[in-house]
Amino acid sequence: MVPKSIQQWLLRVVHLQRNPLLKSRWLLELGLGVCLAMAAVPLWAVSCTTQAAMQSADREALLASGTTLAAAVAGQNFDLLQSSLLPAVTGDWDGIRGVAQAAAPLFKGGQIAWSNGYLLDATDLKEPADTQFFCTTPDSGATITINLRSLPPGRYALMIGDYDGAPLAGQIALILGADANAVGKWKLGGIFAREGALDGRDSVWYWRRARELGQKSDSWSAWFSYDVARWLSLPVDFLSSPHLEKLNKEQMLLKSNPSDLMPLTVTGASAPNAGKTWKITALHLDATLHTSDLGLTYEGTGLTDPVAARAEAVAVMSGLLKLHPELRDSFHGLWAYAEKDGSRSYAIELAMHDIP
Questions:
Q1: How many CB atoms lie within 10 A of CB 308?
Q2: Same structural domain, 160 and 17
Q3: Total structural domains within the chain
Q4: Are 192 and 206 members of one domain?
Q5: CB-side exposure of 253: number of CA atoms within 13 Å?
Q6: 48: closest CA among 125, 121, 154?
Q7: Do 184 and 95 share a domain, yes or no?
Q8: Which pLDDT belongs to residue 44?
């Protein structure tokens, strides 16, 4: 039986993206977080074994379990998924089902290929503790870092795979926990899914594009292109690796971070909003429609009439693009989210060519 305290770390990932697919995830607060700063490491032994270094029995068992569960997600076999849950997370079934449903389009037309697997052995823990794992691949010597907070004793695994041939190049990550009642068997602890390509372009393309834009001093487009490259590189945000650290360092060398310039005041240019001003409070990547959109959040005026609310949102979009017209050439479109008194009152998405 998995201790109830597992829920304290299985329900804690701090995720900065605004994609509704991610918002619906039961694991939005999963404690497998990126640990770029050093965390407390217990004195007793913990270990991480990469897929290539695993004992054949462990590797085969994880691959078998992962492949079965991935097929269940792609095929929407909810009975199998529900019966495979870790006991500690059975109460979160509705959220897990929602993730699986939303993930199906990402995998359509593809075939699963496992790229990475990590066996996390914390059986020597005496009690739940903040624990850091260092996972070094034997072939390259590259090390990724996984930090788990309030981790109960036990054996866990992270499986990461790609759906080769899928138009959206879907990626999947599964959190698995050893079944205490059956040696060699693994139970489902969580599902993560994400596109591997937006607008037919992968992480490498966007990274190269970010470098080109940075050299042109187009720092806003470059900044968000780095964000897209990071988004597409993995289906999760809780791994620290040399690859991602290099991307992060390049991004930080840009002349400006758009977030540092918020709130940004924009002005309406045409009736019925000519001369009116609004404050944009945030701008971020928004892959809700599986395209390279940016999402802006602004201080709305609380309009309740749909026509007037839409006109206001379009005016805000237009105002942003007048200040930064270069965004038109680098991204598919914009989302506008109006907020009033701490609650969202309106949202709209338009392609760049539809924004005046």
A1: 14
A2: yes
A3: 3
A4: no
A5: 11
A6: 121
A7: yes
A8: 56
Alpha-helical (H) ranges within 216-269 are: 219-233, 242-252
Residues 317 and 219 in one domain: no
Looking up tokens 């054949």 gives 56
Strand pairing of 47-50 and 111-121?
antiparallel
Is 226 inside a domain boundary?
Answer: yes
What digits encode the pLDDT tens for the residues 175-199? 899 988 877 789 998 899 999 999 9
CA 137 to chain centre: 23
240-271 pLDDT, tens digit each: 899 999 999 999 999 889 999 999 999 999 99
- 1 in any annotated domain: no
Q: Report the first-to-last Cα separation within the chain, whole angstroms.
A: 59
Residue span of the structural domain in which 74 resides: 6-196
- Whether residue 269 sits in one domain with residue 238: no
SS3 content of the chain, % helix, strand, coil (to 5): 35, 30, 35
Alpha-carbon gap, residue 27 to 96, rounded angstroms:
8
With contact defined as beta carbons under 8 Å apart, do 9 and 150 qualify?
A: yes
Copy the structure tokens of residue 141.
């010597």
Query: pTM of the entire structure?
Result: 0.85
Examine the pLDDT at 342 and tell me if it is beyond 90: no
